[in-house]
Structure formats: C-alpha cells, structure tokens
Amino acid sequence: MGQRRGWGSGPTVATSCRAPLLTPRLEPTAGHPALPPFLVGLFSSLDWNQRPWSSVGWELTGFLEKVKMCLVSISWQVRNIRKVLREIDKPFGLYPNFLSPVSGNWMQHHVSVGGLGDSFYEYLIKSWLMSAKTDMEAKDMYYEALEAIETHLVNVSPGGLTYIAEWRGGILDHKMGHLACFSGGMIALGAEDAKEEKRAHYRELAAQITKTCHESYARSDTKLGPEAFWFNSGREAVATQTSESYYILRPEVVESYMYLWRQTHDPIYREWGWEVVMALEKYCRTEAGFSGIQDVYSKVPNHDNKQQTFFLAETLKYLYLLFSEDDMLSLEDWVFNTEAHPLPVNHSDSSGRGGG
C-alpha cells in the first residue's frame, strides 16, 4: 500500500545478510527504551536529539521481512519493539501515531489507521498468518487493537456509510484517507480467526468499509478516489478542499477489492475493480506510462507527470490478482507485505511454539 508504511520495498537477501553490519546502528543506546531510531546514520552515529520522533507504523514495518529472511540477528529486536508497544499505556486502547524513541512515551495523541499507523495493525495480523498461526502475541494484539478502533473510531454517516475516523486527543476528525482504505481488506483477512461470534460481524464491517472507499471513487467525475474524503456538512465520501482532491495511482482500494473477492467471490468486487481499470486507462494513461492526476473531480485531467513505484508494485499487482484464480499466490501460502511483496507462510512453524 503505496507510501504509507515507510520504505518502498523490503530488504533483499543480499542486503539482509549484512545484518551484523546494520544491527549496531539500530540498537538503542544505554538508558533509552527498546525503540530504534527513525533515522539511521550508516556512516556516523546520530545523536538521539536528532531523532525527535518515530511512528508506531514504522516501528513494526519490516517485521515480516526480517523474520522471513536472514535477519535473525535483529528480528529479536523487532519482537522487543512489539513488547514495548503492547505494555505501554494507550489512550482507550488506541495506538497514537507518534512516539519518542528517547523517552518511549507518546508524543501526540493523534490516532489514524491511515498514514504512519496503518502498517502496525496490518503487520500484527500478517505476522500471525505468516507464522502459520502460531504467533499468539501478534494475534492477541491485533484483535485488541481492532476492538478499540471499532469502539472509538468507526462511525456510520447519516447516509449509511461506514468509515474509520481519525482521533486527535479525544476529538474525531470525520475523514478517511485513501491510505486507510486498505483496512477493509485487512479486516476481511483477519475475520476467519476472530472469535466465532465475531467472524460474521468482521466480514460485514470489512465489506462496509470497502463499500465506503468505493463510494469515494464513484462520487468523483473521473471514478478515481481523492487522497482524503470527509463526512461533514451534508457531504459524504468526497474531498472538501483541492489539496486533498488528487489521485497518485494509489493501491489501497483495489487491494481491499482483491481480499474481499478472495474471501467472498462476490462479483461486485471485480466489477468495481474493472471500473478502476477503465478510469486509469481514460484519465491516467500517457504516452510514456501512467500519471497521477491533480483533481479527481475534473474530467479534463491535469497530470502530475509522475508514475509512482507502487503503481507497478501494488496497484497493478492487486488488480491482476483480483482477476486471477485463487491459486495464483494463494492466501493460504503467501502473505503480502505492506508493499505487496509476497512472502511464504512458514508452515513449518505450525508444529512449533507460538511467538511472543
């Protein structure tokens, strides 16, 4: 899910096997909590005062890759980060986006399932799945977080659209970013392993959130969705200012279509996906590739002249999988990281002990 979770791709085998060289740069110094810095000085150390904040999403991003590849020397540290985050006091069970790697305390009480926070929740459920459902700590943390999100952030608009608001110190911003639209797919992916009495509920919640994200596309002139959309003043699922009206080829909505299709085989998700394909062809294709557009509410596209890397890595990949058979990168055997790179489920773990 493009750009939302830190870095564009996971480490390659060649770079990950150099973990002993990287590990000292990631280790906290004495007297500091077990949180690595947001910035890493590869050739010289950075003072902790130069690392003013880190995001909860960034702290867990890379967990799947580090466990799967040969970064055994630092995967223990990522597990320790998870332990710190689990034990820290959280407002109403919510995880704010920003925390200090120096003090280990939250810096702001801004909670979002969109940028800076999203990959944290995603990697909890995906850690559980990639471990062949043995990583009990990841599973427990995910469902605890999802319950808090549903209690405090999920709203239904007067028009009947379900959305996940943002939370700022107890006050809700009734908006949802395009980046948060991955959450429909995430909730669908995790529904099967919820408590039996919650499974159908989570499937319906996933479907409703995905429907809302589709509405953000359907209510634009180009049938492509804005960067963020609001629910206020009688307007629903639309951007309310030009600075949020752009579309940069993001994948999150079609990502959720793919997961919902795989879970339900409801043809509506392929229909919605094809609408996106046609809109991309009509408004984003150029002679040299595909470009973002600056206003989804204008049928005369003003291209930004950029083809984002996640368009190929994620948007087109999820569209391809949406129209493929289920055994093409089966969700039983593969977990997609935050940038849609498939990582194999460690079925050998299923006979071992759970993580934590």
From TrEMBL:
Residues annotated to bind Ca(2+): 338
Xref: Pfam families: Glyco_hydro_47
Protein's pathway: Protein modification; protein glycosylation
Gene3D superfamilies referenced in this protein's UniProt entry, alphabetically: 1.50.10.10
Protein's name in the database: alpha-1,2-Mannosidase
InterPro entries: 6hp_glycosidase-like_sf, Glyco_hydro_47, Glycosyl_Hydrolase_47, Seven-hairpin_glycosidases
EC number(s) on file: 3.2.1.-
A GO biological process held by the record: carbohydrate metabolic process
Disulfide-bond pairs as recorded: 181-213
Organism: Cervus elaphus hippelaphus (European red deer)
